[in-house]
Amino acid sequence: MNLTGKIKPLSTSRTTSARVPRPATPVEHQIDLQLQDDETLVAHTQKGDARAFDVLIGRYKERLYATIYHMTANHEDADDLVQDTFIKAYKSIDSFRGHSSFYTWVYRIAVNRTINFLKRRKNRNQYSLDDLDSSIQTDPDLIEMMSHVTPRREVGLTELQEKLNEALQKLSEPHRAVVTMHDIQGMTHADIAKVLKCSEGTVRSRLFYARQQLQGLLSDYL
Amino acid sequence: MDCKKAQRLFDDLARDRLAPECAVELRQHLTDCTDCRVLQQRAARLQRLLALKRYEHPAPAYFDGFLTEFHRRLLAETQPQIAWWERALEGLDGFLSAESMQVWRYAVATTLGVTMIVGLMWTGLGQSGETANDASAPNVAANAPVIVTPQISPSASVPTLAMAPSQFSGIWRVSPAADELGLAEMPERPPAVMSTELATPQYVLDRISATPVTYDVASVHF
Predict the structure, then answer these.
(1) What is the pLDDT at residue A105?
(2) Cβ pair A141:B49 closer than 8 A
(3) Which of A68, A101, A144, B95 is buried most, with the most CB atoms less than 10 Å from its CB?
(4) Per the CB < 8 Å rule, is A142 touching B52?
Protein backbone atom coordinates (compact mmCIF):
# COMPACT_ATOMS: atom_id res chain seq x y z
CA MET A 1 0.00 0.00 0.00
CA ASN A 2 1.20 3.45 -0.78
CA LEU A 3 1.48 5.10 2.63
CA THR A 4 2.16 8.55 1.26
CA GLY A 5 -1.29 8.59 -0.27
CA LYS A 6 0.09 9.47 -3.68
CA ILE A 7 -0.63 7.23 -6.62
CA LYS A 8 2.41 6.27 -8.60
CA PRO A 9 2.25 6.93 -12.31
CA LEU A 10 1.57 3.88 -14.46
CA SER A 11 4.87 4.25 -16.30
CA THR A 12 6.83 3.26 -13.17
CA SER A 13 6.04 -0.40 -13.56
CA ARG A 14 7.20 -0.36 -17.15
CA THR A 15 10.57 1.27 -16.55
CA THR A 16 11.76 -0.83 -13.59
CA SER A 17 12.87 -4.23 -14.77
CA ALA A 18 14.48 -5.66 -11.62
CA ARG A 19 11.81 -4.67 -9.07
CA VAL A 20 8.37 -4.98 -10.44
CA PRO A 21 5.91 -3.42 -7.96
CA ARG A 22 3.18 -5.68 -6.71
CA PRO A 23 -0.10 -4.58 -8.32
CA ALA A 24 -2.49 -3.05 -5.82
CA THR A 25 -5.54 -5.07 -4.93
CA PRO A 26 -8.93 -3.38 -5.37
CA VAL A 27 -9.23 -2.83 -1.62
CA GLU A 28 -5.80 -1.22 -1.40
CA HIS A 29 -6.55 0.88 -4.44
CA GLN A 30 -9.80 2.03 -2.85
CA ILE A 31 -7.99 3.04 0.33
CA ASP A 32 -5.45 4.92 -1.77
CA LEU A 33 -8.23 6.76 -3.54
CA GLN A 34 -9.87 7.74 -0.28
CA LEU A 35 -6.74 9.72 0.57
CA GLN A 36 -6.67 11.68 -2.67
CA ASP A 37 -8.00 15.19 -3.12
CA ASP A 38 -10.84 16.01 -5.48
CA GLU A 39 -8.60 17.15 -8.35
CA THR A 40 -6.67 13.86 -8.35
CA LEU A 41 -9.87 11.84 -8.20
CA VAL A 42 -11.31 13.79 -11.11
CA ALA A 43 -8.13 13.16 -13.10
CA HIS A 44 -8.39 9.42 -12.35
CA THR A 45 -12.02 9.42 -13.41
CA GLN A 46 -11.16 11.19 -16.64
CA LYS A 47 -8.62 8.42 -17.32
CA GLY A 48 -11.37 5.84 -16.92
CA ASP A 49 -11.08 4.80 -13.27
CA ALA A 50 -14.72 4.58 -12.21
CA ARG A 51 -13.77 3.79 -8.60
CA ALA A 52 -12.32 7.28 -8.23
CA PHE A 53 -15.72 8.68 -9.06
CA ASP A 54 -17.27 6.37 -6.46
CA VAL A 55 -15.11 8.09 -3.85
CA LEU A 56 -16.32 11.50 -5.04
CA ILE A 57 -19.91 10.31 -4.76
CA GLY A 58 -19.24 9.14 -1.22
CA ARG A 59 -17.92 12.58 -0.30
CA TYR A 60 -20.76 14.69 -1.60
CA LYS A 61 -23.89 12.56 -1.82
CA GLU A 62 -25.27 13.58 1.57
CA ARG A 63 -24.72 17.30 1.10
CA LEU A 64 -26.20 17.25 -2.38
CA TYR A 65 -29.15 15.21 -1.19
CA ALA A 66 -29.81 17.67 1.64
CA THR A 67 -29.74 20.68 -0.67
CA ILE A 68 -32.06 19.10 -3.21
CA TYR A 69 -34.36 17.75 -0.52
CA HIS A 70 -34.76 21.20 1.09
CA MET A 71 -35.59 22.65 -2.32
CA THR A 72 -38.12 19.98 -3.28
CA ALA A 73 -39.54 18.92 0.11
CA ASN A 74 -39.88 15.47 -1.38
CA HIS A 75 -37.63 12.52 -0.54
CA GLU A 76 -38.29 10.52 -3.73
CA ASP A 77 -37.72 13.51 -6.01
CA ALA A 78 -34.53 14.35 -4.15
CA ASP A 79 -33.34 10.76 -4.51
CA ASP A 80 -33.93 10.79 -8.26
CA LEU A 81 -32.33 14.18 -8.73
CA VAL A 82 -29.18 13.31 -6.79
CA GLN A 83 -28.74 10.16 -8.85
CA ASP A 84 -29.36 12.13 -12.05
CA THR A 85 -26.85 14.74 -10.95
CA PHE A 86 -24.08 12.20 -10.44
CA ILE A 87 -24.88 10.42 -13.70
CA LYS A 88 -24.76 13.74 -15.55
CA ALA A 89 -21.50 14.64 -13.81
CA TYR A 90 -19.94 11.26 -14.65
CA LYS A 91 -20.95 11.49 -18.29
CA SER A 92 -19.56 15.00 -18.69
CA ILE A 93 -16.50 14.64 -16.47
CA ASP A 94 -14.29 15.07 -19.54
CA SER A 95 -15.63 18.59 -19.96
CA PHE A 96 -14.59 19.53 -16.41
CA ARG A 97 -11.53 21.74 -16.83
CA GLY A 98 -10.89 22.56 -13.20
CA HIS A 99 -11.76 26.26 -13.41
CA SER A 100 -13.79 25.77 -10.23
CA SER A 101 -13.69 23.07 -7.59
CA PHE A 102 -15.38 19.77 -8.33
CA TYR A 103 -17.82 20.44 -5.51
CA THR A 104 -18.89 23.78 -7.00
CA TRP A 105 -19.23 22.17 -10.42
CA VAL A 106 -21.34 19.23 -9.27
CA TYR A 107 -23.34 21.51 -7.00
CA ARG A 108 -24.14 23.73 -9.97
CA ILE A 109 -25.38 20.72 -11.92
CA ALA A 110 -27.57 19.69 -8.99
CA VAL A 111 -29.08 23.13 -8.39
CA ASN A 112 -29.75 23.77 -12.08
CA ARG A 113 -31.39 20.38 -12.54
CA THR A 114 -33.49 20.92 -9.43
CA ILE A 115 -34.62 24.37 -10.53
CA ASN A 116 -35.59 22.98 -13.95
CA PHE A 117 -37.40 20.11 -12.29
CA LEU A 118 -39.31 22.47 -9.98
CA LYS A 119 -40.35 24.63 -12.91
CA ARG A 120 -41.77 21.57 -14.64
CA ARG A 121 -43.45 20.42 -11.42
CA LYS A 122 -45.12 23.80 -10.90
CA ASN A 123 -48.37 23.58 -8.92
CA ARG A 124 -47.85 19.90 -8.14
CA ASN A 125 -46.39 20.17 -4.67
CA GLN A 126 -46.42 16.82 -2.95
CA TYR A 127 -44.59 16.64 0.32
CA SER A 128 -42.67 13.55 1.28
CA LEU A 129 -40.73 14.72 4.27
CA ASP A 130 -37.83 13.00 5.93
CA ASP A 131 -37.91 12.20 9.62
CA LEU A 132 -36.72 14.70 12.16
CA ASP A 133 -33.58 13.72 14.01
CA SER A 134 -34.32 13.15 17.68
CA SER A 135 -31.44 15.44 18.63
CA ILE A 136 -33.61 18.39 17.60
CA GLN A 137 -35.17 18.18 21.08
CA THR A 138 -31.95 19.48 22.59
CA ASP A 139 -31.33 22.22 20.04
CA PRO A 140 -30.84 25.51 21.92
CA ASP A 141 -32.63 27.52 19.23
CA LEU A 142 -35.67 25.27 19.42
CA ILE A 143 -35.68 25.36 23.21
CA GLU A 144 -35.47 29.14 23.12
CA MET A 145 -38.29 29.33 20.59
CA MET A 146 -40.49 26.96 22.59
CA SER A 147 -39.87 28.96 25.75
CA HIS A 148 -41.64 31.90 24.13
CA VAL A 149 -44.72 30.00 23.03
CA THR A 150 -48.00 31.68 23.49
CA PRO A 151 -51.38 29.91 23.15
CA ARG A 152 -51.44 31.05 19.51
CA ARG A 153 -48.00 29.61 18.85
CA GLU A 154 -48.38 26.21 20.45
CA VAL A 155 -47.08 23.86 17.87
CA GLY A 156 -45.71 20.36 17.59
CA LEU A 157 -42.44 19.60 15.88
CA THR A 158 -44.10 17.83 12.96
CA GLU A 159 -46.40 20.76 12.38
CA LEU A 160 -43.48 23.15 12.54
CA GLN A 161 -41.64 21.05 9.99
CA GLU A 162 -44.63 21.13 7.65
CA LYS A 163 -45.06 24.89 8.04
CA LEU A 164 -41.39 25.51 7.29
CA ASN A 165 -41.53 23.40 4.16
CA GLU A 166 -44.77 24.98 3.01
CA ALA A 167 -43.32 28.46 3.43
CA LEU A 168 -40.19 27.53 1.48
CA GLN A 169 -42.23 26.04 -1.34
CA LYS A 170 -43.99 29.37 -1.78
CA LEU A 171 -40.73 31.09 -2.76
CA SER A 172 -39.63 31.25 -6.36
CA GLU A 173 -37.04 28.62 -7.34
CA PRO A 174 -34.01 30.97 -7.45
CA HIS A 175 -34.97 32.51 -4.09
CA ARG A 176 -35.51 29.07 -2.57
CA ALA A 177 -32.13 27.93 -3.82
CA VAL A 178 -30.39 30.89 -2.21
CA VAL A 179 -32.17 30.48 1.12
CA THR A 180 -31.44 26.75 1.14
CA MET A 181 -27.76 27.20 0.42
CA HIS A 182 -27.24 30.11 2.82
CA ASP A 183 -29.61 29.72 5.74
CA ILE A 184 -29.88 25.93 5.84
CA GLN A 185 -26.63 24.69 4.36
CA GLY A 186 -24.52 27.54 5.69
CA MET A 187 -22.71 28.38 2.46
CA THR A 188 -21.13 31.78 1.99
CA HIS A 189 -22.37 34.42 -0.42
CA ALA A 190 -19.25 33.97 -2.53
CA ASP A 191 -19.73 30.19 -2.86
CA ILE A 192 -23.41 30.61 -3.73
CA ALA A 193 -22.48 33.19 -6.35
CA LYS A 194 -20.05 30.70 -7.92
CA VAL A 195 -22.64 27.94 -7.96
CA LEU A 196 -25.33 30.14 -9.48
CA LYS A 197 -22.87 31.98 -11.73
CA CYS A 198 -24.07 35.37 -10.58
CA SER A 199 -22.67 38.26 -8.52
CA GLU A 200 -22.57 38.33 -4.74
CA GLY A 201 -24.83 41.37 -4.90
CA THR A 202 -27.47 39.29 -6.67
CA VAL A 203 -27.20 36.63 -3.98
CA ARG A 204 -27.63 39.21 -1.19
CA SER A 205 -30.54 40.81 -2.98
CA ARG A 206 -32.32 37.46 -3.47
CA LEU A 207 -31.73 36.60 0.18
CA PHE A 208 -33.18 39.90 1.29
CA TYR A 209 -36.40 39.51 -0.69
CA ALA A 210 -36.77 35.83 0.17
CA ARG A 211 -36.46 36.58 3.87
CA GLN A 212 -39.01 39.35 3.67
CA GLN A 213 -41.46 36.90 2.13
CA LEU A 214 -40.64 34.20 4.68
CA GLN A 215 -41.08 36.57 7.59
CA GLY A 216 -44.61 37.23 6.39
CA LEU A 217 -45.34 33.54 5.94
CA LEU A 218 -43.84 32.47 9.27
CA SER A 219 -44.86 35.44 11.38
CA ASP A 220 -46.58 33.15 13.92
CA TYR A 221 -43.26 31.54 14.79
CA LEU A 222 -41.03 34.62 14.89
CA MET B 1 -23.01 53.74 8.49
CA ASP B 2 -26.38 54.12 6.79
CA CYS B 3 -29.33 51.72 7.23
CA LYS B 4 -29.05 50.21 3.72
CA LYS B 5 -25.42 49.25 4.19
CA ALA B 6 -26.09 47.99 7.71
CA GLN B 7 -28.89 45.70 6.54
CA ARG B 8 -26.60 44.18 3.91
CA LEU B 9 -24.14 43.18 6.62
CA PHE B 10 -26.48 41.39 9.05
CA ASP B 11 -25.51 37.96 7.76
CA ASP B 12 -21.81 38.65 7.99
CA LEU B 13 -22.17 39.95 11.54
CA ALA B 14 -24.09 36.84 12.60
CA ARG B 15 -21.33 34.60 11.20
CA ASP B 16 -18.38 36.69 12.39
CA ARG B 17 -17.20 37.39 8.88
CA LEU B 18 -16.77 41.12 9.34
CA ALA B 19 -13.54 42.98 9.94
CA PRO B 20 -13.32 44.05 13.63
CA GLU B 21 -13.67 47.78 12.95
CA CYS B 22 -16.62 47.20 10.60
CA ALA B 23 -18.31 44.99 13.22
CA VAL B 24 -17.92 47.69 15.87
CA GLU B 25 -19.40 50.27 13.52
CA LEU B 26 -22.36 48.06 12.73
CA ARG B 27 -23.08 47.28 16.38
CA GLN B 28 -23.04 50.98 17.11
CA HIS B 29 -25.55 51.56 14.35
CA LEU B 30 -27.83 48.83 15.70
CA THR B 31 -27.73 50.47 19.11
CA ASP B 32 -28.77 53.80 17.64
CA CYS B 33 -31.29 52.67 14.99
CA THR B 34 -34.42 50.94 16.28
CA ASP B 35 -35.69 49.95 12.83
CA CYS B 36 -32.47 48.19 11.91
CA ARG B 37 -32.32 46.52 15.33
CA VAL B 38 -35.84 45.09 14.93
CA LEU B 39 -35.05 43.95 11.40
CA GLN B 40 -31.83 42.33 12.55
CA GLN B 41 -33.58 40.48 15.39
CA ARG B 42 -36.32 39.17 13.08
CA ALA B 43 -33.76 38.06 10.50
CA ALA B 44 -31.79 36.23 13.19
CA ARG B 45 -34.92 34.44 14.46
CA LEU B 46 -35.85 33.44 10.93
CA GLN B 47 -32.37 32.04 10.34
CA ARG B 48 -32.57 30.03 13.56
CA LEU B 49 -35.96 28.70 12.52
CA LEU B 50 -34.76 27.70 9.06
CA ALA B 51 -31.69 26.08 10.55
CA LEU B 52 -34.00 23.56 12.25
CA LYS B 53 -34.48 21.98 8.85
CA ARG B 54 -30.98 20.55 9.19
CA TYR B 55 -32.50 17.96 11.51
CA GLU B 56 -34.47 16.41 8.67
CA HIS B 57 -32.66 13.26 7.57
CA PRO B 58 -33.54 10.28 5.40
CA ALA B 59 -33.75 6.82 6.94
CA PRO B 60 -30.38 5.66 8.37
CA ALA B 61 -29.84 2.96 5.74
CA TYR B 62 -30.80 5.18 2.84
CA PHE B 63 -27.24 5.95 1.70
CA ASP B 64 -26.10 2.32 2.02
CA GLY B 65 -27.46 1.32 -1.36
CA PHE B 66 -26.79 4.67 -3.01
CA LEU B 67 -23.69 3.59 -4.94
CA THR B 68 -25.30 0.37 -6.15
CA GLU B 69 -28.31 2.29 -7.39
CA PHE B 70 -26.03 4.78 -9.13
CA HIS B 71 -24.23 2.01 -11.05
CA ARG B 72 -27.54 0.36 -11.92
CA ARG B 73 -28.92 3.58 -13.37
CA LEU B 74 -25.67 4.37 -15.17
CA LEU B 75 -25.68 0.93 -16.79
CA ALA B 76 -29.33 1.31 -17.79
CA GLU B 77 -28.58 4.66 -19.42
CA THR B 78 -25.49 3.56 -21.29
CA GLN B 79 -26.62 0.18 -22.62
CA PRO B 80 -28.44 0.24 -25.99
CA GLN B 81 -32.20 0.32 -25.89
CA ILE B 82 -33.94 -2.86 -27.09
CA ALA B 83 -37.29 -2.89 -28.85
CA TRP B 84 -40.47 -3.79 -26.97
CA TRP B 85 -41.02 -6.96 -28.96
CA GLU B 86 -37.48 -8.13 -28.16
CA ARG B 87 -38.20 -7.61 -24.49
CA ALA B 88 -41.52 -9.47 -24.86
CA LEU B 89 -39.79 -12.42 -26.57
CA GLU B 90 -37.11 -12.48 -23.90
CA GLY B 91 -39.79 -12.44 -21.23
CA LEU B 92 -41.68 -15.30 -22.88
CA ASP B 93 -38.48 -17.26 -23.33
CA GLY B 94 -37.56 -16.73 -19.71
CA PHE B 95 -41.05 -17.70 -18.60
CA LEU B 96 -41.02 -20.95 -20.57
CA SER B 97 -37.46 -21.88 -19.66
CA ALA B 98 -38.05 -21.38 -15.97
CA GLU B 99 -37.56 -24.47 -13.81
CA SER B 100 -41.20 -24.58 -12.80
CA MET B 101 -42.32 -24.36 -16.42
CA GLN B 102 -40.40 -27.42 -17.65
CA VAL B 103 -43.52 -29.60 -17.42
CA TRP B 104 -46.03 -26.98 -18.42
CA ARG B 105 -44.33 -25.70 -21.50
CA TYR B 106 -45.38 -28.77 -23.52
CA ALA B 107 -48.96 -28.22 -22.37
CA VAL B 108 -48.75 -24.56 -23.36
CA ALA B 109 -47.28 -25.42 -26.77
CA THR B 110 -49.99 -28.08 -27.36
CA THR B 111 -52.74 -25.69 -26.34
CA LEU B 112 -51.37 -23.03 -28.67
CA GLY B 113 -51.22 -25.57 -31.51
CA VAL B 114 -54.77 -26.85 -30.95
CA THR B 115 -56.05 -23.30 -30.71
CA MET B 116 -54.41 -22.48 -34.01
CA ILE B 117 -55.91 -25.53 -35.76
CA VAL B 118 -59.39 -24.88 -34.39
CA GLY B 119 -59.07 -21.26 -35.44
CA LEU B 120 -58.11 -22.25 -38.97
CA MET B 121 -61.00 -24.74 -39.18
CA TRP B 122 -63.42 -22.14 -37.89
CA THR B 123 -62.20 -19.63 -40.45
CA GLY B 124 -62.66 -22.18 -43.25
CA LEU B 125 -66.21 -22.97 -42.10
CA GLY B 126 -67.06 -19.29 -42.06
CA GLN B 127 -65.81 -18.86 -45.62
CA SER B 128 -67.90 -21.85 -46.87
CA GLY B 129 -70.93 -20.31 -45.17
CA GLU B 130 -70.37 -17.11 -47.11
CA THR B 131 -70.20 -19.10 -50.34
CA ALA B 132 -73.54 -20.77 -49.59
CA ASN B 133 -75.01 -17.40 -48.82
CA ASP B 134 -73.88 -16.13 -52.21
CA ALA B 135 -75.50 -19.15 -53.91
CA SER B 136 -78.92 -18.39 -52.51
CA ALA B 137 -78.61 -14.68 -52.90
CA PRO B 138 -80.03 -14.08 -56.44
CA ASN B 139 -83.63 -14.51 -55.27
CA VAL B 140 -83.23 -11.84 -52.65
CA ALA B 141 -83.28 -8.09 -53.07
CA ALA B 142 -79.81 -6.68 -53.27
CA ASN B 143 -79.80 -4.87 -49.94
CA ALA B 144 -82.10 -7.15 -47.96
CA PRO B 145 -80.53 -8.83 -44.95
CA VAL B 146 -80.39 -12.59 -45.28
CA ILE B 147 -79.76 -14.77 -42.29
CA VAL B 148 -78.74 -18.26 -43.21
CA THR B 149 -77.95 -20.99 -40.76
CA PRO B 150 -76.42 -24.29 -41.69
CA GLN B 151 -78.58 -27.36 -41.18
CA ILE B 152 -76.69 -30.54 -41.71
CA SER B 153 -78.84 -33.48 -42.68
CA PRO B 154 -77.82 -36.91 -41.43
CA SER B 155 -76.97 -38.05 -44.95
CA ALA B 156 -75.14 -34.93 -45.99
CA SER B 157 -71.59 -34.17 -45.19
CA VAL B 158 -70.27 -30.86 -43.96
CA PRO B 159 -70.41 -28.33 -46.78
CA THR B 160 -67.07 -27.54 -48.26
CA LEU B 161 -65.70 -25.19 -50.82
CA ALA B 162 -65.32 -28.08 -53.26
CA MET B 163 -69.08 -28.61 -53.52
CA ALA B 164 -71.07 -27.06 -56.39
CA PRO B 165 -73.57 -24.38 -55.34
CA SER B 166 -76.51 -26.60 -56.33
CA GLN B 167 -75.34 -29.25 -53.93
CA PHE B 168 -76.12 -26.93 -51.04
CA SER B 169 -79.86 -27.36 -51.61
CA GLY B 170 -81.23 -29.35 -48.74
CA ILE B 171 -78.23 -28.47 -46.62
CA TRP B 172 -78.97 -24.77 -46.16
CA ARG B 173 -82.29 -23.36 -45.16
CA VAL B 174 -83.53 -19.88 -44.45
CA SER B 175 -83.54 -19.11 -40.76
CA PRO B 176 -86.73 -18.30 -38.83
CA ALA B 177 -85.65 -14.69 -38.68
CA ALA B 178 -85.62 -14.60 -42.46
CA ASP B 179 -89.06 -16.21 -42.50
CA GLU B 180 -90.36 -13.31 -40.47
CA LEU B 181 -89.05 -10.93 -43.07
CA GLY B 182 -90.93 -12.88 -45.76
CA LEU B 183 -87.77 -13.81 -47.54
CA ALA B 184 -88.62 -17.51 -47.63
CA GLU B 185 -91.74 -16.85 -49.77
CA MET B 186 -89.89 -15.02 -52.47
CA PRO B 187 -89.97 -16.66 -55.94
CA GLU B 188 -87.49 -19.38 -56.56
CA ARG B 189 -84.52 -19.00 -58.76
CA PRO B 190 -85.46 -19.39 -62.48
CA PRO B 191 -84.76 -22.93 -63.73
CA ALA B 192 -82.87 -21.58 -66.76
CA VAL B 193 -80.24 -20.20 -64.53
CA MET B 194 -79.98 -23.46 -62.74
CA SER B 195 -79.77 -25.42 -66.03
CA THR B 196 -77.03 -23.12 -67.27
CA GLU B 197 -75.01 -23.91 -64.24
CA LEU B 198 -75.58 -27.66 -64.71
CA ALA B 199 -75.16 -27.75 -68.53
CA THR B 200 -72.17 -29.30 -70.22
CA PRO B 201 -69.36 -26.76 -70.37
CA GLN B 202 -69.02 -25.01 -73.73
CA TYR B 203 -65.61 -24.15 -75.14
CA VAL B 204 -64.78 -21.54 -77.77
CA LEU B 205 -63.22 -24.03 -80.16
CA ASP B 206 -66.45 -26.08 -80.24
CA ARG B 207 -68.21 -23.28 -82.06
CA ILE B 208 -65.55 -22.91 -84.81
CA SER B 209 -66.78 -24.53 -88.02
CA ALA B 210 -63.69 -23.87 -90.12
CA THR B 211 -61.57 -26.62 -91.57
CA PRO B 212 -59.34 -28.12 -89.01
CA VAL B 213 -55.78 -27.02 -89.11
CA THR B 214 -53.44 -29.40 -90.92
CA TYR B 215 -49.79 -29.74 -90.49
CA ASP B 216 -49.24 -31.53 -93.82
CA VAL B 217 -46.02 -30.31 -95.45
CA ALA B 218 -47.66 -30.15 -98.87
CA SER B 219 -50.14 -27.58 -97.76
CA VAL B 220 -47.45 -25.21 -96.66
CA HIS B 221 -46.41 -22.62 -99.26
CA PHE B 222 -43.28 -20.57 -98.92
Answers:
(1) 95
(2) yes
(3) A68
(4) yes
Nearest to B52 among A141, A188, A214 (CB): A141
- Quote the pLDDT of residue B19: 87
Rounded to the nearest angstrom, the minimum Cα separation between B81 and chain A is 17
Task: Examine the pLDDT at A48 and tell me if it is beyond 80.
Answer: yes
Q: Is B103 a domain residue?
A: no
Complex-level ipTM: 0.76
* Pick from B1-5, B105-109, B194-198: least confident: B194-198
Angstrom distance (rounded) from CA B39 to CA A35: 46
* Mutant choice from B53, B71, B77, B79 vs A, greatest count of A C-beta within 10 A: B53
Query: Residue A77 — very low, low, confident or very high, per pLDDT cuts 50/70/90?
Result: very high
Residue B189 is given by DSSP the state P
Of A70, A160, A222, the CB nearest to B46: A222
Contact B11 A86 (CB under 8 A): no
Q: Which residues contact A163 (CB under 8 A, 6 or more apart)?
A: A155, A218, A221
For chain B, the domain total comes to 1
User: Reduced to 3 states, what is the DSSP secondary structure of residue A206?
Assistant: helix
B11 within a domain of the structure (yes/no): yes
Domain encompassing residue B16:
3-52
Pairing type for strands B56-57 and B148-150 reads unpaired
The answer to whether residue B146 is domain-embedded is no
CA distance B27 to chain A (A): 20
- Please check whether residue B18 lies inside any domain of the structure: yes
The shortest C-alpha distance from A20 to chain B (Å) reads: 33
pTM: 0.60
Instruction: Identify which of B8, B43, B69 has the shortest CB distance to residue A211.
Output: B43
Q: Which of A134-143, B79-88, B127-136 has the lowest mean pLDDT?
A: B127-136
Strands A131-132 and B56-57: antiparallel
